[in-house]
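User: Run a structure prediction on this.
Assistant: Running it now.
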Amino acid sequence: MSESNKKKSNKIWLFLLIYTVLAVCVTFYLINRNSNNKSLELGEKEEIENHENNIDFSNIQRIKLTDKYYKNNIEIKEKYKYLGDIIGYDEYENKPRYKVMVTFPEISGLKNKQIQNKINSEIENVLDELINKNEINDKQIESIFISANVDGNFSDVISVSIYKTIYFSEEKYEFTENGVSFRLDTGEKIKFSDLFTEDASIKNIISQSAYDNFSFEYGIYNNTDTLEGNMDDIDYSKMENDVYKIVYNYNKNPEIDFYFSYNSIIAIINNKMITIEMSKFYEYIDIYNLVFTKESLYENGDKEKINYVFGMPVFEGYQHFEKIDNNTFLGIYNPSLSYIENDEIYDEQYEETRKVIEKYKDKLISEIKTKEKNNKKAQIYNIHYIYTDENNNLTASGEKIEVDSKEFDEKIDEVYARASREKSGEAIVYFGGLYDEYDVYNIEISEKNEALEIKQTDMRSFYDI
């Protein structure tokens, strides 16, 4: 064999040796990884089975999707704290801007002032822990903004989201997020495990939610900026690895940072925010049932329980909301009603709309009854836009939903509950989910010569346009 052939043969053997070693390493890694995954799954399954054997299921109160909640009857005032040097002045109000600005809520309206003061102090303490003297003196840091906001305020619990942003001189910034939540009956902090029923598989809920979150993140943001492309072409292996890490880190420390709103829980694990959509796991959500009291906790009593669980708190904005006969329900929305808090603009808008509704309500009810007297189905009228034009004639619009008259009372709650969970703006807008099951129509109401005319047209979903 020639010298060149020997060298060539040696290179081939060397390549095969390296390839074999790499293949063995990769195989070993995959076997070990699958073993870990399987161990995690088997361990979780065994843990759930052992846990369920010790549960008294008769004591678990399940949420139904048509259940209702009330907003807490407390006042929330925004307060400010400033630290460090003055770094400039506000160009509009000529007020000084400090290196560190902290905004935070202060609650009032609880009967028990000791509990109220305890909650307010705890919120301030959490924020004080985020203030670092070294950061205040660091010349590389231009400014620091810390903000706390009440995201959840219902069913005798509150939840506060907390954000900290450090802005550097070179236009870079660092962002961190956490939260703190309280029971209003005792002032005690709420733990992450408290948010779920005793029989909930929290790991499974986190795993599914993380997968949903990362599917969007990797499928959209990592694929293209134009939201185009074939989702089947995406490599999801990194995403699955990240989901595994989230569950692994939760196993190590189950009492994680979090905050919640009326429809979602933001779990913060390994510096990642995982959004848990509560309606997807509603049977295992215990937030709405966490506090039971015989007497109201509030100086001015409880607010009316009119909003549907996991839905937008828009029902306090309905000026008229009732069954007007055996087969017809009418809701009339006043968009400014939910925002009246010593605000002159909203007060004026509310009063104008209130007067229009009061003036035309009876006439509108009479006209609807006349129009629907021969309709064998029951109907839900939802009016969310109502005013008088320059000629003082009524103009209104909304939707009509036809349902089976035998199930009318049940369907009223179901329709409004489902609609309140749609991701819409003010009032209730019937897109998507309601088309599959109900006949939904646009309603236009106009006045001419003191007579009302109700026009009905088919409503089209986005998919039909």
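Residues 246 and 272 are 8 Å apart (CA to CA).
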